[in-house]
Amino acid sequence: MRAKNAQSTQASDTEWVLGYISGVNLNAPAGTRSAGHSFHKPEDATAWLQNYCRAHALDYLVKAADELRAEFLRRERQ
Predict the structure, then answer these.
(1) Three-class SS state of 40
(2) Mean pLDDT over all residues of the chain?
(3) Looking at the whole model, is its pTM more than 0.90?
């Protein structure tokens, strides 16, 4: 049962992060409004967030969201 709750929390966190990124995109400068347009699979974002949170355990989730958005921008500019 505990593992299910952890998975549920991870899914909720991933959904929140992706929604946050969409909201930031609305107010971003024109060249960065589509950050994440290449994103297709939630499990990829979940894996990225898990790795980030392991390495930065004291950061708030919003910091992870900002970093994921920056990662999207870096990948999409290549």
Answers:
(1) coil
(2) 88
(3) no
